[in-house]
């Protein structure tokens, strides 16, 4: 469950809210299916469905649903013509659910059920060094839940990763099995050395993880591939690995590498959800 969902679940213990979720989008739209925000009393919002006029219209509709204590589904045309237009030039369409959630435990449970269906998955960081810390600083704002694993007590500390769902200090290869990665999860390998990278990678390749990324030089990657093949791993298995990890943007510093890795994770998530990566001029047109 991402940070926005966690915050909403906490608030639902004592106050009602309306969960606004994009169910379907067609054509050009600021956000795609699965994007959500919550509207609480007084117009307070958690999350975003893209900002601008479409979000303003949805906030007004959510306030009405909150006052009436009634759920609804609406369709909006993202243009400046037609009965359900919202005065935008995107030209797409969105179908939006307004789910009224009364205060109490049952609403929090419904929220958890929906969060499990979003397909967001977890980012599992193996290695807690400089790049991992820089990457971890970016993930919560992007609605990624992340875990950190390192076998060094001085590195695997919760204080260094305040946004983490969990920080594990244990054998990293063994932790792969304990975390039980699913096809929704993203494994990021950036340990302190090639031996640890290799042990984590060979375990990761036996899981159904949807994304596996490995940080390292081309020489190290070639050595790792050769060693895997000697152990019986086929070329198609190594082809699952995104390496060198991250998008090619000339990154050098830990912060720059973290940005390149984060961009690749976002692109994978967008494709996995069926949205596909979009150029910025299309997103903001």
Biggest sheet record: 6 strands, parallel
Number of helices: 10
CATH class of the largest domain: Alpha Beta
Number of strands: 11
What class, by secondary structure content?
alpha/beta
- Uncertain parts: 275-285
Number of domains: 2
CATH topology title of the largest domain: Rossmann fold
Cα distance, first to last residue? 31 Å
Helix % is 25-40%
**What coarse outline follows from CA principal-axis ratios?**
elongated
CATH superfamily of the largest domain: NAD(P)-binding Rossmann-like Domain
Strand fraction: 15-25%
In words, what does this structure look like?
It is a single chain. The chain is of the alpha/beta class and 285 residues long. The chain folds into two domains: 3-116, no CATH class; 122-272, Rossmann fold (3-Layer(aba) Sandwich), CATH 3.40.50. The chain is 37% helix and 20% strand. The strands form two sheets. The chain has a six-stranded parallel sheet with strand order 8-7-6-9-10-11, covered by helices on one side. α6 (194-204) links the parallel β9 and β10 (211-214). The chain starts with a helix and ends with a helix. The relative contact order is 0.11.
Write the layout of secondary structure elements.
Layout: H1 3-11, E1 17-26, E2 36-39, E3 45-47, H2 52-68, E4 72-77, E5 93-101, H3 105-116, E6 122-126, H4 130-138, E7 145-150, E8 166-169, H5 172-179, E9 186-189, H6 194-204, E10 211-214, H7 218-230, H8 235-238, E11 241-242, H9 254-272, H10 280-283
Parallel strand pairs: 6-7, 6-9, 7-8, 9-10, 10-11
Antiparallel strand pairs: 1-2, 1-5, 2-3, 4-5
Helix pairs in contact: 1-3, 4-9, 5-6
